[in-house]
Design brief:
38 strands, homotrimer, 27% strand, 343 residues, 4 helices, alpha/beta, Udp-n-acetylmuramoylalanyl-d-glutamate--2,6- Diaminopimelate Ligase, Chain: A, domain 1
């Protein structure tokens, strides 16, 4: 395990106190003990440090913690993540293609990969160096997976889809299922073959039981660095920009385009064929039915600027009392009218 | 690959121009090149044909495309789907029960099937001619799957459920999970065994990671030709009619009945024990809590006729300004009352 | 099969009529025939008993059913569930670790277990007596599963998670996927390793394709007796109390705490870091953004007491007519003002 000095070198952070202490574990303030490092990102929680028996704390400049070694840096939350990676983020040693995995002889396998039992790898699949396929992963014919990916158990990738480097896919996600396309034929629905693919660029993360449909023709595209939470639905021919966040249970209908650095809140729905600008936030459970400009926050169904929505939903709550006001006004006007006419 | 004349014969369409050209691929207008066929379903996009180097276009009667062979027909969108099927929809040659598949000796297997590695087929299962089970499909005891089905990777079908002919199930779908039924026993919940099944009739399509629960007693039924998008939840004892469309992330609670030719929009929720008439549309994200008549469009939570909802949601957006109006009216009335009384 | 007297003994119920009749099946009133037992929980349906050819009925005290044997008890619905269990709820005989299952040599396996083909069991896993792993279950290293559990096909449990006794997990559920945690690093997002686990206590049921994320640090906890319907999302560090019901497609964001004996309706969403009191009900599709007290019913987005919501949503429906009222009031006031001023 590393010393506090070693962690500081890794982070480019400053040590205050004994840098030779060996750190075994990251732990929350309340449960940290000797050998643990903890962190304070929010000054509100500084008081809790008094009682801790932790060995060190990650903290912003300008604070004092008597008796506690400090790792001082500008972004304790990011430092916390990096220390956690240093302490707990080791990749297991590669195990090769294990007994009980079925790999087609035409597949091209990089070095230092692991393919667990129960995986099925189709024809002409390419798997990059250092990638791990956990048990039960299925890669249909022609799939490409880049280097240093973690493809968790039960992930199912259909024919021809392409996954970049350092992509993480949580268990049960489906990549490349048929888009939902049918042509009415007068009686019912005729299936439109979905002959496109899905492309996930580098550093994308895909949550558990997510569904990303292949394009009808062309590509359903998730760009570099985007993170997708569990149970999200991405329909055919959608494009998601770079470094965008899709929170759990979001649904995005066909051919819509979401920009870079957006955040789409949980359970929100986006209609098809719309365009969301860069740096836009959509609140949880919103229903967005038309294009949204860049850099703003939207809420509600149909979506509106968040401030408008706050006012509108406060007003909805007060509607019953407003209704009473309106009927009392109605009565007072009737009386006034009577009075005025009588004179 | 077929010639344009051969495709025309297949569709019952008319060729204008050189019918002997060989078609290799369907492509969107913008990316189509020599050897490709493209299509124009919407006259708005006709102008784009000027610059195309495609070999042919599928188009309605009454248009001219100098220098481009035309496949003329009344329903270009349907023709597009059929040409796509002709060009790209070939089923792979059957491979039988492959090494690494586990099939119980009591299972009845039709001719020309494929069972990929990682599949597990239980006792007394019946699989019809031409059906493909992709890797990792699990059929519990007593399951029946009809002819020419595509059951994609990781689909899980529990005991006794029955699937018709030409059914397509996308990866990860679960058919026949226990309905959510518990009897309060004074302290907590006592599980009610779910002893019914799921029946999917012919030509149904089920999306990725969909869940269709088995009936408590009897049958959860999805009728002929109905198409279900990804991540939809269908509870126990539900009946879905024929040729109905359930868009992604819809949830339908127990014992409800949806009619024929309905469309239920994405993320909509239907309460339990209600009945939706034929040809009814429910807008995305609606919450339907009571029966709906046939042939109309409903929106909102609770659901209301779509036109009402449009007015109501416009009014909600204007609520804050209406609120100001009401308080200004209130003041004016007070002043009037004062004035009138003073006289 | 049991006699009516035997079922009565099991339930502590009273038999009226011929207790020696052998019961083969539970069936709904409309389809029950000779050898079947049916039940009436709701006195509304008593009339239907006239025409039944069932052999017996489960019924509350105080009713008469000439010609029909009766199992009389205070809670017919609970009795129905228990009889159904007696008739149909037998566990299959254990089959041990079957061919085609991959179990690491360090795993500790209890007696009378079944591990179907296609299962993969990692290092140092512990499986309790009588538990069944259906085909394709994956238990990562260090997972613990208690006694008499049913873990259905394709369930994926990540490293170190712990499952209690008598837990039922429906097909395709994912337990222990990474929580959705990322630290902005100025350009994009840096992944925060999720080093906690998931704990499911005794008698929990988890629905099909549910996702329960592991804690960032510590535990995501589902307490004893809680029942989770299909496609529910539970984020990292959430705690769900005892005997709570989460209906299908609910989403609960990170670190929130739901009390005991709550019911969260279908498609409802709970924001992160909030606390829901005991015995609280949240209506379907609600969006709860702040703490809720115990013992009440909440609806809407943002959530409000159910009665308020009923009034507010009725008022929303009447908004367009209220709008007309307000503008007519406006005109009448203008006329009055004119009249009064003119005098």
């Amino acid at each position: 395990m590393p010393t506090l000095n070693e962690l500081a070198a890794l982070l480019g952070a400053e040590v205050v106190g004994d840098g030779s202490v060996v750190i075994h574990r990251m732990a929350p303030i309340d449960s940290a003990g000797p050998g643990d490092i903890t962190f304070v990102a929010n000054p509100r929680y500084l008081a809790r440090l008094k009682d801790t028996t932790a060995s060190a704390v990650i903290i912003k400049p300008g604070f004092e913690c008597p008796g506690l070694a400090m790792l001082v840096c500008d972004n304790p939350y990011l430092a916390f993540a990096k220390v956690l990676t240093a302490l707990h983020g080791q990749r297991p040693a590669p195990r090769g293609v294990m007994d009980g995995a079925w790999v087609d002889s035409t597949a091209e396998l990089g070095e230092d990969i692991t393919v667990y039992p129960g995986c099925v790898v189709g024809k002409n699949v390419r798997i990059g160096r250092g990638t791990i396929l956990y048990p039960g992963v299925v890669l249909y014919d022609g799939v490409e997976v880049g280097e240093d990916c973690l493809v968790h158990a039960g992930v199912l990738v259909r024919e021809g889809c392409r996954i970049g480097h350092r992509v993480i896919v949580q268990p049960g996600a489906v990549i490349g299922s048929d888009g939902f396309g049918f042509a009415p034929d007068g009686r019912g629905y005729y299936k439109i073959p979905q002959v496109g693919i899905v492309v996930l660029e580098d550093d994308v993360e895909v949550g558990a039981n997510v569904c990303i449909d292949r394009a009808a023709m062309g590509v359903t595209l998730v760009k570099r660095g985007t993170k997708i939470d569990n149970l999200v639905q991405i329909a055919h021919n959608v494009t998601i920009g770079e470094d965008t966040i899709l929170v759990a249970q979001v649904g995005i209908a066909g051919s819509s385009k979401v920009g870079n650095h957006c955040t789409i809140g949980g359970q929100a729905g986006l209609a098809g064929h719309i365009k969301i600008g860069d740096n836009t936030m959509v609140a949880a459970q919103s229903g967005i039915m038309s294009d949204l400009p860049a850099g703003q926050v939207f809420s509600g169904t149909p979506g509106m600027p968040h401030r408008e929505w706050l006012k509108a939903s406060a007003a909805v709550k007060n509607l019953p009392s407003m209704r009473k006001t309106v009927s009392s006004l109605q009565k007072r006007i009737e009386e006034l009218e009577k009075l005025v006419r009588e004179r």
